Amino acid sequence: MSGEGRLTRYGLRFVALFYLAALLLLPIGVALVKTFDDGIGEVITQITKPDALHALKLSVITVLIAVPLNTIFGIAAAHVIVRTNFPLKWLIGAIIDMPFAVSPVVIGLSLILVYGTGGWFGADLAAQGIQIIFSTPGIVMAVIFVSLPFVAREVIPVMQEIGTDQETAAETLGASPWQTFYKITLPAIRWGVTYGIVLTTARALGEFGAVTVVSGNISGETQTLPLYVSKQFETFNSVGAYSASLILAILALGTLLFMNLLRRRED
Amino acid sequence: MVTYLSLIVLLPLAAIASKAFSDGFGTFWDAVSQPQAVAALKLTVICSLIVVAINAVMGTLIAWVLVRDEFPGKGIVNSVIDLPFALPTIVASLTLLTLYGKDSPFGIDAAYTKAAVVIALLFVTLPFVVRAVQPLLLSLDRDMESAAESLGAGRARIFRQIVFPNLAPGIAAGVALAFARALGEFGALVLISGNVPYKTEVASVFIRGQIESDNIVGAAAVSVVLLAVSMTLLAFVNLIQKWGLRHER
Q1: A4 contacts on B by Cβ (under 8 Å)
Q2: What is the mean predicted confidence (pLDDT) over B144-168?
Q3: Looking at the domain assignment, is residue B150 inside a domain?
Q4: Theoretical Cys-Cys bridge with B234: which of A4, A101, A242, B148, CB 3.0 to 4.6 Å?
Q5: pTM of the model
């Protein structure tokens, strides 16, 4: 390679690494150092406060409900989009993508307008004694809405690629649709599904905007971990905010590692 | 499946549109044309445009370095790109505030400025262009470039006439997704932007303010404007993808 070529290459490499450092690594590094300003004991005190633990618990519960539902929905949706044909099919695809294009705050507002007091179903639900907004079901719905497309988006291309030969063969040999799905389709799409689940989990765990609007943000009740972080910051307990962030960051890092393992496996 | 979609996505979005126009078009127009709403929408669009322009250049550059360059630790750099997708936005906001806020160890205080809005949006949108361009670069046939080089084309010309046209659909798709994300972003902005009306208040923060002050019709009206812009973008992404597929065949 010519000297000029090498110079360009080093230049581009430097620019790319500098940009990533300034935007991603430095802020996270500095925040990490700041978290332990008052020592590790203080961090442990902060994250074991009842409100913090409750927030973590609510976040985990939300993820445990939202992620399985979206996974089943995502696989079903991918199947319908790839394997069936009917008029207006493109519309289903477009609707599934919608959450990517809608602001989380708008998502929260839209749920209030249907399920909140004064909303379309608000009065009927209240008459049944069901409260959705400012309570856990609302938080779960908001999280489902924002993380809806991930599994379908990951599974659709895989399903398109594997084709229908094996499925048809299984059916010809007398397998029931459920057997065909379980023994042929599912193993073939498993990496796509797993990748989709990882993305869904990350988004569900970290969602802030939509949850803020529907949850009411009551400490120890309807506060998820990201809401807890912002509340601690607003009430000038910055150590509390950083400590809770650390938990979220560790979970995010775990997600990231998992994503990479998967990508390597695919290759 | 249709019930699930309807209950969670369609009905709520329909409710927004219906609420926005519930007092007639006049009220809708008043709500979206009031100065604070206009300022918020304008700031959102301008910042998002700046952000996607930077993303288009930096995203392509990073993708190029990750595909064509070799250096120790490249694998780690490649995995770090997904960090903004994995990290909760509120944590992103907090970390950016630590580095670029008033207690910055480097003395860069950008908190509560438009620059802070741009930085936060750059953080959350980083992966879109990189991840859209990377596979295209990987599958790009290098023979074409070698041929052009042996025929005497300069590096700039090779990039302009061979590499760029092949990457363009990826850049465009990544940019559109990043733009949609930037338009609606909330979590990454709350702590660092300061949410100062007319100055650093973006549309999503404005909508949240209207909800809190119980002006639901106003909130819904601005939401409809945001929705309309994002939907157009999404349709655009779909068109590009179709065009990209046709290109391959």
Answers
A1: 155
A2: 86
A3: yes
A4: A101
A5: 0.91
